[in-house]
Amino acid sequence: MREVYDEMERALREGEPLVLATVAASRGSTPRKPGAKMAVRPDGSICGTIGGGCGEAEVWQAAMDTMRDGLPRLVTVDLTEDVEGDDKICGGVMNVFVERLATLEPRT
Question: Of 36, 72, 92, 96, which has fewest CB within 10 angstroms of its CB?
Fold first, then answer.
């Protein structure tokens, strides 16, 4: 998780927008537990992980929406649904808080 904190520090220092997704709660079997973080850059690339697969893709899409409009979101990732072609193999549920980090004003 150190790389996520380093990325946050870099983005804030350089005044670059960054969206942070944090697993706020989980129940049942999930790939990551509360506190896991993923940073999403303006170009859509990520740093860190909240578990991969279609659940992470769902959160990534919410993060890109937050990057555009600045609104925080709480995303419920339901890994219990068995849909053909999905890789929801864990069987639990995660609540992921998605927020855009404010950029720092240059120091004078």
Answer: 72
